[in-house]
Amino acid sequence: MKIKIVGIFVCMLLITTILPMTALAGDPENPEFVDKIRDVKLFGVFIIPFQMEYKYVDIVAAWLHEESVTPDYLSVSLQIRDLEAKTESLEAIYSVDWAWNNHLILVVLHINPDGIGTFDVGRSLDYNDDIEEWITCDGMVDVEQNIITWSVPKEFIGNPPKGATIENIYPLTSLRFTDASGMPLMDLFKDLSLNAKTSKEYVIQY
User: Fold this and answer.
1) What is the pLDDT of residues 94-117, one digit of tens each?
2) β-pairing, 91-100 with 198-199?
3) 44 and 18 belong to one structural domain
4) Residues 112/92, Cβ–Cβ less than 8 Å
5) For a designed S-S bond to 175, which of 40, 90, 152, 205 qualifies (C-beta 3.0 to 4.6 A apart)?
6) Are 118 and 134 a contacting pair, CB within 8 Å?
């Protein structure tokens, strides 16, 4: 009898531990991806001693989330250390990619001296890493909270069903010369996801 009671108690303890993790997944407090800050690098390789100049491309976290009132959309949020709605000279590129059903999916936003560009989402079509089809989606830049959010139509990414697992969620940011500069369009400064503190999967809720 004592063993049975102890077993029930242990099960209840496990359930109360697991449920908050499930409920809180996919929000700023429990993001799927957490990055180390102050890790923007020249060409994505060389450490930069003065990181304050590049904090508007310094990744903090990324997460996926859904709302019951809009079940046909998957929201993707990217948090930056100090987001700006307009850059001074270089163009900032913000992206998050993930994998589902052996396809690569990518959301992208460009912000340059002219302001905020379009919110785009792309997908691969033939089981490789080449993004071959693009659409423009809805999105929002919240400078006060330092968060960029894309609202991705699930139909475009293959309608992942409830319970489907979104894997390999990786953000990437970079700084490059603008088109108007006439300079080569190469990534000068990058924040890669190679040294992530946390990287988890996301399960479709609706």
Assistant:
1) 999 999 998 999 999 999 999 999
2) unpaired
3) no
4) yes
5) 90
6) no
DSSP 85: S
**DSSP assignment string, 112-130:** ETTEEEEEEEEE-SSSSS-
54 in the same domain as 100: yes
3-class DSSP assignment, residue 36 = coil
Q: What is the pTM of this model?
A: 0.86
| 3-class DSSP assignment, residue 11 | helix
Read off the amino acid at residue 157: I
158 in the same domain as 80: yes
pLDDT score for 12: 41
Distances (CA, A) of 56 to 88, 141, 145: 11, 13, 12
Mind listing the pLDDT tens digit for each residue in 31-67? 999 999 999 999 999 988 888 899 999 999 999 999 9
Range of the domain at 41: 32-203
Give the C-alpha separation, 75 to 193, whole Å. Answer: 20
- Do 67 and 21 fall into the same domain? no
Would you state the structure tokens that stand for residue 173, as one six-digit string? Answer: 């940011």
pLDDT for 28 equals 85
Domain count of the fold of the chain: 2
Q: What is the average pLDDT across 71-83?
A: 97
How many whole angstroms separate alpha carbon 128 and alpha carbon 139? 26
The answer on 18 and 86 residing in a single domain is: no
What pLDDT digit, counting tens, does each position of 165-183 carry?
999 999 999 999 998 887 8
Question: What's the pLDDT at 179?
Answer: 84
